[in-house]
Amino acid sequence: MADTGRLPAAGISFDGVSMTFAGVRAFEPVSIDVKAGSFVSIVGTSGCGKTTLLRIAAGLVVPSEGSIDLGGARPGMCFQDPRLLPWRNAMDNVTLPLELAGVSPDECQDRGIEMLRMVGMGDAWNRMPSQLSGGMRMRVGLARALVERPPALLLDEPCSALDEITRETINELLADLWKELGMTVLLVTHSLAEAVYLGRQVVVMTGRPGRVVSVHGIHLPSRNPEVRTTVEFAQALQSIYHDMTLPRPPGGIAPGSLAKHAGGEP
Ligand SMILES: Nc1ncnc2c1ncn2[C@@H]1O[C@H](COP(=O)(O)OP(=O)(O)OP(=O)(O)O)[C@@H](O)[C@H]1O
Ligand SMILES: [Mg+2]
Q1: What are the DSSP calls for 15-46, one per residue?
Q2: Residue nearest ligand 1's atom 16 by CA
């Protein structure tokens, strides 16, 4: 039986990370500490550098300045389009990273089916991507991102192509996976409601060039869907919206100030 217990979470530390493309500053130095096991959302106006920041965290892009430290961990990733291989069924998409890592076929099958069960796709393991809905494809993409048991998960607008109801079910799935597995999650989203509902902290960025303007600790009376109708939820949305639409402040937040918002417990 595959091991689906809690993952050893990794902290993610951005130290003065900035990016300049062809002489144009995409975003100013970012210094934030995402605590191991926390769930942090990043919101911000289009083009402020959210995706680039995640790509830097994933090791796909080298920053122009600064450094990123995941304690040597390799994160899992899932972006807006899970980019499943169309010629492989759900199971074979999920087990691909294991195959590439040389894991035995039997163990691949065990771990693949466990992950597919965790994301609610246990009965559809042999369906091809073309036979899956957008929500189902995202579930398979999440299973693939988690099958190697990464200590951190990077998500770039995973729900933005989904309808409202499907988005809510995937939000619940993300919350459940985080509680069950305990990995660190960094979620980029354009939905302030999604950011607040899932994140224990929300990092607010603005452009251009991009910069971090504030970090909000999110304290809600519960994490059930009904919490979206509470005053606390509305107040969190309002203060984040306020910061996103502020005129540019003279300076960004102090390096490491995210560390002050401890939290991180499911
Ligand atoms: N490979 C690249 N070459 C040149 N410029 C780039 C490249 N990638 C990103 N940029 C620029 O860097 C800035 C930040 O882009 P990024 O995609 O990170 O923003 P974003 O916050 O994710 O935007 P959105 O919310 O629209 O997804 C933008 O001005 C973008 O045009
Ligand atoms: Mg983006």
Answers
A1: EEEEEEETTEEEEEEEEEEE-TT-EEEEEE-T
A2: 49
Question: Model confidence over 130-172: pLDDT tens digits?
Answer: 999 999 999 999 999 999 999 999 999 989 888 999 999 999 9
Q: What ranges do the domains of the chain cover? A: 1-75+151-266, 83-149
Q: What is the pTM of this model?
A: 0.90
Reported as a single tens digit per residue, the pLDDT across 169-207 is 999 999 999 999 999 999 999 999 999 999 999 999 998
For residue 159, how far is its CA from the centre of ligand 2 (angstroms)?
13
Mutational pocket test of ligand 1: of 19, 28, 46, 52, the residue with most ligand atoms within 8 Å of the beta carbon: 52
- We find that the CATH architecture of domain 1-75+151-266 is 3-Layer(aba) Sandwich (3.40)
